[in-house]
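Q: Got a minute? One more chain.
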Amino acid sequence: MATVEWRSPASEMAVRQFEIAAERLHLDKNVSARLKRPDRALIVSVPTRMNDGHVHVFTGYRVQHNDVLGPFKGGIRYHPDVNLGEVSALAMWMTWKCALAGLPLGGAKGGVACDPSKISRKELQEMTRRYTAEIINFIGPEMDVPAPDMGTNEQVMAWVMDTYSQHKGYAVPGVVTGKPVDIGGTQGRREATGRGVVYTIIEAAKHLGIDLPGRTAAVQGFGNVGSVAAKELAGVGVKVIAVSDRTGGFYDAKGLPIERVIDYVGKTSKNSTLEGCPWGEPVSNADLLELKCDILIPAALGMQITGGNAGKLKCKVLAEGANGPTTLEADEVLKEKGIFVVPDILANAGGVIVSYFEWVQDLQNFFWTEEEINKRLRDILTRAFYEVLDMSRKEKVDMRLAALMIGVNRVARAMLWRGLYA
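A: Always. Here it is, folded:
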């Protein structure tokens, strides 16, 4: 990823994280060289007829990092900042995430550079269907299975599934996960990532001897991940004192009424954001990170916690709901401050774990209850948490490096077994 077309702050961070883990593992140099670059990267034009009649050409991406353990798996992101470097970084993190969770899947990611909040439903559907058509030869239940990510949801996945199915001539529910339950989606998928974040926080609290009821939390990002995490934390007695989204945030030291805030965003807010929220005092996204609290959940964009603000954090546990929210420089500061970090490839793995469950259910046409889904999710995340904690103690490294070492090592071992086809 050293060449210009791959470079971005996110890709450089992902590669450097990998290099640190590879050096610590004394990884085979040939395997290491292969894992620094994705197996395949696709850039597509996505011409879309807009409501005013003109055709706007969006740029779409699909990056497939590594499939040594199984089919590629990874979300589709709609955001103005989507670019090849970012998508490549996210695909790499997905590889380690799947391996860490013990899933028979590899890492991929996709996206379209756009602002979905400024696109009508009709335009969004047409763009999604054209994007799907452009990548259709690179996805499929046995090849690459997309899912929702930032800016996309179950409706977008339904359009992807329908477009793929129309081309095939029959319904193929297993081509994507995160679909509506009515067309082959699974119970518990929408809540899975945020719920998983809280499952890992519960285990971190046990490890640290923290009794959660009455403790405080702040959540940056109030989308699918952040809102569910906030609701789940409130459900175990934690006071959520601050939440924010792209429009800003709100803070109340006594605790926000999370259920009512979620209801406001979903039903009352004109643009489905926190803007105009009647509870709490305004707080910026940047200031929210520096509030005194027991638990901080960055669940928005990447690279929010940097060398510049890490020293100002006042939390005890940092649970990363977003992908890559903490820079390498910030990691060193957090380590010195003694903040316990639950890294992204562990904390937010709930989404891909339940996506795996959905994929399995679609392939066998046999569906589980939400109770079964949540139990299996918690079992996998709890096991992974203690594997990472044990590695951290054994190797005397932080939780991020421990998680990366486990994920990278599992992929590297599989690659050595399979060898190089030339």
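A: The CA atoms of residues 93 and 345 lie 7 Å apart.
Q: Perfect, thanks.
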